[in-house]
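Technical annex, item 7. During the second reporting period the consortium partners agreed on a shared format for inverse folding records so that results from different sites could be compared directly. Each record opens with the tokenized structure and is followed by the designed sequence. A conforming record, contributed by the partner at site C, is shown below for reference.
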């Protein structure tokens, strides 16, 4: 992380091209495993995200998706959220082409390939970030996907800065990075942490800056430590990346997109206040409605708990509200939390502020 950039160097809102896709800004919602389903994406788009990515899907899941409601919900797309990308993850290059075509048939506008997931069980199955250690396999996957989808459909890539901080890891990163563009990817998102770093410690924005200098005119998006509009401005200003993908900072906080766009349009980030309690209540209620339409009320209640914990960080009493959502067992309980804790309209709190670790 760096100090806030001075006004003279502040970036401004710019259009972003991902191949044939023309986006109205450089602010994107990242793919978030277990989170970026249709309701979260729809809200992100309504609050200003230029583009969203569906949660990552395994190539093998897509080959056997079946017809049950829960599986089909993962492929659901709302008319209002286009353009939207589908993200693929797997290990065997042979499985990627049919999986990519399944995402095309489902209506996604772009195919993103995940070479960044640092989760232990993913790495153990030679998926996600593991592929940064095997450039030949990684680039074969890129080629299979690019060949499998329509020519005008963009293929993009998500990477971390390498398996670790070794020179060998960096060399493999750039072999995959350059090779992917040579095989036709439209853009690459780079997360500033290594795979072994997982989510610990700061994202290395100096590495992102070096990658963008190396890339030249090729489109690079940055990721990592984007929890506030100020951080988004700082990443754009200090790294030179063409766009940014907001990941964990968007969970339970779709306002980050509106606020970041306002900052890019010249607003002082210090003046961008968190939403009040009633604004939070209304979005929580709409999130529940969208989830109930997609999953049914019973499953929506269970699904929304993990989101509500994050929304609670904006409430002036975050721990109390968080615990109330956790304790809610039924749909009626969930709505009672809204009726009781969101009854009085009070100023919200900045979710980027540190609070008791039990909130996490």
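Designed sequence (site C submission):
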């Amino acid at each position: 992380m760096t100090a806030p950039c001075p006004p003279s160097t502040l970036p401004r809102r710019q259009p972003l091209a991902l191949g044939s896709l023309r986006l109205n800004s450089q602010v994107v919602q990242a793919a978030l495993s277990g989170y970026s389903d249709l309701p979260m994406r729809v809200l992100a788009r309504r609050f200003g995200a230029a583009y969203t990515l569906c949660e990552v899907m395994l190539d093998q899941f897509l080959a056997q998706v079946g017809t049950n409601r829960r599986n089909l919900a993962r492929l659901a797309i709302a008319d209002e959220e286009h353009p939207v990308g589908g993200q693929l993850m797997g290990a065997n290059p042979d499985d990627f082409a049919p999986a990519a075509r399944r995402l095309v048939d489902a209506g996604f506008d772009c195919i993103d390939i995940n070479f960044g997931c640092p989760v232990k069980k993913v790495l153990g199955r030679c998926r996600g970030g593991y592929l940064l250690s095997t450039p030949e396999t990684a680039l074969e996957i890129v080629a299979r996907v690019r060949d499998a989808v329509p020519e005008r459909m963009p293929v993009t890539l998500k990477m971390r800065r390498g398996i670790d901080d070794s020179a060998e890891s960096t060399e493999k990163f750039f072999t995959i990075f350059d090779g992917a563009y040579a095989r036709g990817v439209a853009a690459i998102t780079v997360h500033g942490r290594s795979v072994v770093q997982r989510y610990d410690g700061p994202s290395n924005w100096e590495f992102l800056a070096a990658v963008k200098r190396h890339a030249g005119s090729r489109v690079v998006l940055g990721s990592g430590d984007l929890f506030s509009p100020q951080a988004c401005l700082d990443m754009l200003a200090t790294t030179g990346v063409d766009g940014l993908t907001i990941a964990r900072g968007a969970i339970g906080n779709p306002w980050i997109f509106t606020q970041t766009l306002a900052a890019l349009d010249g607003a002082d980030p210090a003046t961008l206040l968190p939403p009040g309690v009633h604004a939070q209540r209304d979005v929580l209620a709409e999130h529940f409605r969208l989830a109930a339409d997609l999953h049914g009320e019973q499953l929506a209640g269970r699904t929304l708990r993990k989101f509500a914990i994050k929304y609670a960080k904006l409430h002036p009493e975050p721990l109390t509200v968080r615990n109330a959502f956790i304790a809610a067992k039924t749909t009626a309980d969930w709505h009672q939390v809204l009726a009781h804790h969101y009854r009085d309209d009070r100023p919200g709190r900045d979710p980027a502020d540190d609070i008791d670790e039990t909130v996490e």
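Residues 140 and 255 are 39 Å apart (CA to CA). Residues 355-360 have pLDDT under 50 and may be disordered. All partners now use this format for quarterly exchanges.
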